[in-house]
Specification:
about 325 residues; alpha+beta; Jelly Rolls; Arc Repressor Mutant, subunit A; six-stranded antiparallel sheet; 11 helices; globular
Length: about 325
């Protein structure tokens, strides 16, 4: 977490000499970053983690081999003013704090106090996303957040499901280096976590505003991943997000557009980028249009000219000079 320039840091045991891999990971990650003791349960030990440092939020995502990660009293001599929300993406794991088991399986989340001992264990190779959140920032949105300590958040929790989809969308993009984007993403994450932790009343209403923005971000990311699918529709996207197609359309309309207009605009923009890219020079315009989800080439040509004021042929003809 930080208040300054957002950063992304990647560390991996693959960059360490084999004979020093565990010792260096214990030093760099265990003591330097996470303040944990590490005890491998399998050989060879490996770990690969990317950190995204935002205002009031730090995101760690990656994979690790089986190991115990222990936060001890000794390591808590300088306790961190955070809470940690760890989401299991794959593998088998357990986490305990206050004598309670905190993981309910893949997709569930454990909520840990940064001021108390805990043990987190991957019993198999697995992947995860862990959020370290400013305690004061969460307390503003969910004053009763401590009630979440000692119990898992189930995978079927709607706010948790949306949080995972949102994190997948923002981590896949290359936008977090922008300070304004980072502040917005941080606010959305805090809103979604607050809802998952049980924010109520006015605070829940405030958090829902951020949740809607996060939902729309996740929907857009999903749409962008499926632009080449000619069957792309609000119904298809809604089914993938367990919401109604009417709600999908409403979210886009509240931004001043429509689902159909957004899809059309992004498909046309993708075709134009491909027309200007020499890597696709061997493909016909019809092939590019089809790759971006257009089945009707006449309709594509009309829409392209109306949108850009030029034909696809015009754009390809000037590509060498742009």
């Amino acid at each position: 977490m930080q208040d300054g320039q957002p950063r992304r840091i990647h560390i991996s045991t693959d960059t360490f000499p084999d004979e020093k891999r565990l010792a260096m990971w214990r030093e760099v990650y265990g003591r330097g970053i996470a303040q944990v003791d590490i005890e491998p349960l399998a050989e060879p030990f490996h770990a690969d983690v990317t950190f995204s440092l935002l205002p009031n939020v730090a995101i760690a995502s990656g994979s690790r081999s089986a190991a115990h990660y222990r936060v001890t009293r000794e390591l808590l001599k300088d306790p961190r003013d955070i809470i940690a929300v760890s989401i299991l993406r794959s593998g088998e794991a357990s986490a305990t704090q206050f004598g309670q088991e905190l993981i309910g399986g893949v997709g569930s989340a454990s909520v840990l106090s940064g001021a108390e001992p805990s043990v987190s264990t991957l019993t198999t190779d697995g992947s995860f996303i862990t959020l370290a959140l400013s305690r004061s920032a969460i307390a503003e949105l969910a004053p009763d957040f401590e009630a979440a300590f000692g119990r898992p958040i189930p995978a079927e929790d709607p706010a948790l499901r949306l949080l995972v989809k949102y994190l997948d969308a923002v981590l896949a993009a290359d936008e977090l280096a922008n300070p304004e984007v980072a502040r917005s993403v941080s606010a959305h994450i805090l809103d979604l976590v607050a809802l998952a932790l049980g924010a109520r009343g006015d605070r829940a209403e405030a958090a829902l505003g951020g949740a809607k923005a996060a939902r729309l971000k996740a929907l857009k990311a999903d749409v962008m991943s499926m632009l080449g699918n000619s069957e792309l529709s609000s119904e298809l996207v809604a089914g993938r997000h367990n919401i109604s197609s009417r709600y999908v359309r409403k979210l886009f309309e509240q931004e001043g557009t429509s689902f159909t207009s957004f899809v059309l605009g992004e498909r046309l923009a993708r075709v134009r980028r491909m027309l200007r890219d020499t890597r696709y020079a061997h493909l016909t315009i019809a092939q590019l249009a089809h790759a971006c989800g257009f089945n009707d080439i006449s309709y594509f040509n009309r829409a392209f000219r109306r949108h850009f004021g030029a034909t696809p042929t015009d754009v390809r003809g000037t590509a060498g000079g742009t």
